[in-house]
């Protein structure tokens, strides 16, 4: 069956690996998600670069899922909040839909445990079908409610540049949170025998929020507990006053929720317009405002009021609500005393002379003119009121973790430094991982059989520390044979998918991941262009002596509206079209872009890889997981000290990792130097850009792409991701890769350093 179109890149795949490990370790855990009908998109590569078409993974049905029409929950949007006769707030009116469960069992490895992945599909209640309109011939109007409900689960990450797109994204996030929490609470109550003790809830339930997309779990749990389960803020506050617990609702979600930050990129630290959220989720805005006020009180209590200016600065940075006035309960702290405007009339007044009077009159006229000009100017618009979802996650979770050692330090030192100083005990590291069941045992059976033979047991699949026992020269020969077998498989696949023929005796150099400027596929392909240019400048005999044959494979999707990323895809395919048809070069260099990269493609590429590129700008890749998959399959990495690269390098040894580039602590200073015009680009970098601009790779105008690497400031300029800075050390490191590949015996020895 086709790959399930449920997740975009590493984060979705990481969730799958978590489920596999949880089941194998016999944990009672569930996964929740949306059942996207069309997924992200299916990628096609044409002469114009990347084109997107809808996924069709559900066209023939999904044989693994179980439709649970008996498990559905109401989800509300819009409406208004009113105070009932009981004094409670009630969310009424608006648009109601149903979330219906589809269950996918996740079996553990060599265990009787199978856990559940519950996916939600959305539809409108039957009563929303307008039968009168349908019979009157107004068929579209009659089905409007159903169409609005169903489209929530059509596409993963729908474009959000329009207001409609933003509303749809927020609907998706709330549907996931509301349906999942209602389900969790229903099971908790059922297992409690109808007598739920809510103080036990955080001991029985843990909800992990992956990035900020599920942040609405926090106000949604609050809403359910207060509005539907009858808890009050007053009751909870009485408990807090006795210094036993925080207010019960606050305590409940704080102890229940935890937040994983997966990236330092601004787009992942979501902010939502208050106006939009108030319109779509009015009750949740009320709760968020209360949580924000609670957070403000906590900050003031911890920091004190001795320095009001500093305190106000901290509050502005840490509040959940951005560009909001302070609540009246604390506003008085920041009222500045007015200057004493009283004049002592008993003092003698000097009578000005005529010249001084004239000067004063001129000054008054000048002031009047200035005031008139100020009135005529356009008023400065107020910044929009926003809800900071990441701040809500940190405030509302009992733990906050990064996903690699270096990333977790950046989270503490930069991204959430103020929160770290307030609650240092909340912050921790949990380096990502991948499942060896899929990423060695299943996808690389030839290598798996060799490992089992030499270790003498298959237990390594569950205990990967046993891989450290693999040291034997006979093993190396068998390992080489397995690698070549995998390369031959990949040669056939590349021919089928792209039409390009490549030689299995060349080095297979692979970079597959989401296309993004910070992941620096552009650095890789510019390195390839430099290599090609140098090849063309020397004779055929010199070429063969100097360069190791190499097949450079790229794969990954650029987001549909990410123009620069799509330019990079176009550039890679243009470079490939030129080099792959150059008879002077032949099998010495090939460039292949694999369309529609997914898990099934990865299962062919990774076992055949010999060099894998993980070359993000230092400090910008939270972890990466493909680096782990490549390393597990006996592949050497070239990369920066970023994400999990740091820990992989520590495990395999510095001699078995090709390191280059600036380090994370240097990045901010390098950008400041660039802004001051102090950066001097390497002559080789200038040379390769001019070569691209010469038109050798076709008629497409690459000025915008090359221009992003130039200048010292401005949007889309100034080489923010330091491609030019790292280019010299990158190409010099690639020369070391060639030298190592020539020494096959040493290369085989280094690839035996397999770690999970």
UniProtKB/TrEMBL annotation:
It catalyses: [(1->4)-alpha-D-glucosyl](n) + phosphate = [(1->4)-alpha-D-glucosyl](n-1) + alpha-D-glucose 1-phosphate. PROSITE patterns: PHOSPHORYLASE. The modification N6-(pyridoxal phosphate)lysine is found at residue 629. It is an enzyme of class 2 (transferase). Its EC number is 2.4.1.1. Keywords: Allosteric enzyme, Carbohydrate metabolism, Glycosyltransferase, Pyridoxal phosphate, Transferase. Belongs to the glycogen phosphorylase family. This is Alpha-1,4 glucan phosphorylase. It comes from Escallonia herrerae.
